[in-house]
Amino acid sequence: MGRDVLILTEADLRRTVPLDRAAVDATERAFVALAGKGVVMPPVMSMQIEAANGEVDVKAAYLPGFDGFAVKISPGFFDNPAQGLPSLSGMMVLLSAQTGLVEAVFLDRGYLTELRTAAAGAVAARALAPSLVETVCVMGTGAQARLQVMAAHLVRPFARVLVWGRDAERAAGCAADIATALGVEARAEPDAASAVAAAQIVITATPARAPILRAEWLHPGMHVTAMGSDQDGKGELAPEILSRALYIADRVSQAEVMGELRGAMRAGVWTGGRPPELGDVLTGRHPGRTSPAQITVCDLTGTGAQDTAIATHALALARRAGAGLRLDA
Amino acid sequence: MGRDVLILTEADLRRTVPLDRAAVDATERAFVALAGKGVVMPPVMSMQIEAANGEVDVKAAYLPGFDGFAVKISPGFFDNPAQGLPSLSGMMVLLSAQTGLVEAVFLDRGYLTELRTAAAGAVAARALAPSLVETVCVMGTGAQARLQVMAAHLVRPFARVLVWGRDAERAAGCAADIATALGVEARAEPDAASAVAAAQIVITATPARAPILRAEWLHPGMHVTAMGSDQDGKGELAPEILSRALYIADRVSQAEVMGELRGAMRAGVWTGGRPPELGDVLTGRHPGRTSPAQITVCDLTGTGAQDTAIATHALALARRAGAGLRLDA
């Protein structure tokens, strides 16, 4: 019957939906769908709740070929840590694309977002990074820095990770966690230029509002995944980088208002017209990397399409595992 | 604790949250808040899913003074009835305005929307209708037509209801249901002009795309609640009505794109500048009805503020009744 609603908690989802190749493949399908016709992805609905130093984003996307579409509520309340609560939380809902009925509620507290964001980094690396990667540099020391590195390892099994962060202790902790999780060499590198110089893949995963990756650090053949900029005012890359590399957006309409593209356009250094999207590369509409020496940059602002893809994937896995609570709602 | 999530099904909510004066009062608080400062109510997020003859609206509103804010997902899939499923469904989420954490999930399938929409009609009638109402005319024969009449009866205990609808059988069924529910005289009236002439309150509750209430039917002292127009292309009132009555919008920014105001502006008959909102009348910023002979019109497009108010009300009642399922999510 289709009138039941499956309720899945964060614990259910962490048990059932790992960061693995299947999650990367599911996320890739989102970008492929985005390159096709019939996608309905409205602009992000944003609310600023100043009284509580909070913001809420709502994202949604209908993708042809998917049985359901997700609506995601992502709050970020930045005074929460002082109360022992996480800043980021939220949930997703999957509705039937045929009937609009609610199929599943994911009380994931942001876990599926973490997953699909990391998985998008792997999709970008698989499509754009050089085929041989020995060293990855990650700029940032948070949960997403760790997950991005783990996701990249699924598609480019590198041997070494250099972690750069403003806080040496946090950088060392991040490196230790990565070493344990992946069984690779991982260490903090306090000099960002050295860390970048040694890496074939550079991942930026910070909430930076001023560039942390400089244009003079670019070197032939490298791939950059910039995933930190998801709203106006954020930005991790020096604007010149976009004009000196093959720049790919996850979604142009988002990148020009909340991604790295926005900064480059404002700085007047973007003269490339409409850049290609990741889905264009995946579907062959754009050739992507065409030489080993080319420098590629993928700008990930985070799309509702990824939410629809990961929610669909999670529901399939949960059903198979018999996870969650089925409510006759 | 605050980390639990309360899950309430439609059955829980129908049992726990009736259409009564408390629901009307809760809804009134939404409009009062809308007239104040600090409200964050982004434009409705809309998706058209043409492949399934469906549409989805997402509404949200933060209201100062409310502990939580609601995000509502409202799908309408108009091929559903052929499969024995309702066109309208959906759900609401209430999040803490202090932390952004999810407090309650209302798997209400649209019940709370029906409730807060009917309650808004009662708020409008209480604020604007003449104090003595003997007869109500309702144009429309659906669920909301019934609920609007029941809600109006809470604030103006009239003795007689005339139901006009295009389908005589449905009109008779609607009248019979109202008579049973309220214990008042209720009958179908096939002549719309006669029905309107006899009534002190006229409620339009249809999905009409061409006017069903004509300007020449207006008569001194009457109050009109028009609740059917909630998107561009809909409209129930002849445009001239707005310039010949005291016109009040639930929210001007919505009424001018999806309410009756839109039609009057396009027809060029609206010359009144920015109309007052219902909250302006409730807070005394606008005097509202100033004479027994005045004609008043309230245009209800449906606001996220009402969702926040009804969800807050529903959560309080559900907690008191011990209803629903508490998940350690």
Describe it.
- Chain A has 329 residues and is α/β, with parallel strands linked by helices.
- Chain A folds into 2 domains: 5-113 and 305-327, ornithine cyclodeaminase, domain 1, CATH 3.30.1780.10; 128-303, NAD(P)-binding Rossmann-like Domain (Rossmann fold, 3-Layer(aba) Sandwich), CATH 3.40.50.720.
- Helix content of chain A is 35%, strand content 22%.
- Chain A has 11 helices and 14 strands.
- The first copy, chain A, has helices spanning 10-16, 21-34, 111-128, 143-155, 168-182, 192-198, 240-244, 252-258, 260-266, 278-282, 304-321, and strands at 5-9, 45-49, 54-61, 68-77, 91-96, 102-107, 135-139, 160-164, 185-188, 201-204, 223-226, 246-249, 296-299, 325-327.
- In chain A, strands 2-3-4-5-6-1-14 form a 7-stranded mixed sheet.
- In chain A, a hairpin with a 5-residue loop joins strand 5 and strand 6.
- The radius of gyration of chain A is 19 Å and the shape is globular.
- In chain A, 56% of the residues are buried.
- The model of chain A has no long low-confidence stretch (mean pLDDT 96).
- The interface between A and B is large, with 48 and 48 residues.
Which class of the largest domain in chain A in CATH terms?
Alpha Beta
| Secondary-structure class of chain A | alpha/beta
Q: In whole angstroms, how far apart are the ends of chain A?
A: 12 Å
Q: Please summarize the sheet with the most strands of chain A.
A: 7 strands, mixed
CATH architecture of the largest domain in chain A: 3-Layer(aba) Sandwich
User: Total number of β-strand segments of chain A?
Assistant: 14
The strand order across the widest sheet of chain A is: 2-3-4-5-6-1-14
Topology-level CATH name of the largest domain in chain A = Rossmann fold
Q: Write down the secondary-structure element order of chain A.
A: EHHEEEEEHEHEHEHEEHEHHHEHE
